[in-house]
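Section 4.2 – Deliverable D4.2 (structural model, holo form)

The reporting period included a commitment to supply a predicted holo structure for the target in complex with C2E. Inputs used:
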Amino acid sequence: AKHGGRNRLAEFVPAMTAATQRRVALERELRQAIAEQQLALHYQPQFDCASGALVGVEALLRWRHPEHGLISPAEFIPIAEDSGLIVQLGGWVLHRACQDVMAWDRAGAPALTVAVNMSARQLREPGFIDDVMRALALSGLAPERLELELTESVLMEDVAGAVAFMQAARALGVRLSIDDFGTGYSSLAYLQNFPINQLKVDRSFVQLLPQRGETVIHAILALAHGFGLSVVAEGVEDQRQLDWLRAAGCEMVQGFLLGKPMPPQDFAARYLSPVG
Ligand code: C2E
Ligand code: CA
Ligand code: CA
Ligand code: CA
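Output (structure tokens):
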């Protein structure tokens, strides 16, 4: 450990600087990305477990960077959150998602729900609930077809503020889900205080099926159903996982087995074009 230590430090420092530089550059470029139409939403289908019917989509943000290509939201969402840009970005996502689903309606699609991911910073933004109202009014989407996904960490950051936001959203008729359920803290203690409609079982549990993970998912299903909530399992990648979830009474499924996130025009072509 003694020899080479200095060399390792020398390698580490420039690497850190490069990562920081990329971050600073991305933050600057993110400001222009909306105006320059580098951002896009991809949609992943959600299916009713029992009937197999397509029931909704989740909107997932994509950044087509002119030099770096496709950048994962896992990288740029945290940058947008730290810089406050997430408020503008999240507003764009909300409006775009409502409009895309209504365009499918006009093309004769069934009345799908659309799930939109939320950051903590958006919940704290005083005008955000008005923006939700505006997105619904401008698109004509029925409020009960919009689902806002909140992670446990988003909820725990400011419980009182989150509850106030959730009550305002529910008063509009909008639906609320807890995303990545089972990976956070305090979820059980707070479940009864949160006016939510649905839990999304995190992919990390689903991927253990069918050999492992059953105990946790059975417990989540019992808990959710006890509170009158429905359950979506995310990250379903193989048939045995799907079979297990159907038998266990999970309401909805989402995952690469059934459909990957895709651009709206691909989604329409694959799922909404008249068959036969
Ligand atoms: P998430 O909300 O948990 O979204 C699910 C992620 O799992 C997506 O990654 C999706 O592509 C991926 N996924 C879906 N099915 C499968 C599967 O069967 N197997 C595997 N391995 N992965 C699957 P993605 O699109 O890269 O998004 C990552 C995260 O970025 C999201 O996790 C969400 O936390 C965040 N995010 C994406 N779009 C937005 C947005 O508009 N606003 C906010 N605040 N966050 C967003
Ligand atoms: Ca989500
Ligand atoms: Ca999730
Ligand atoms: Ca996640």
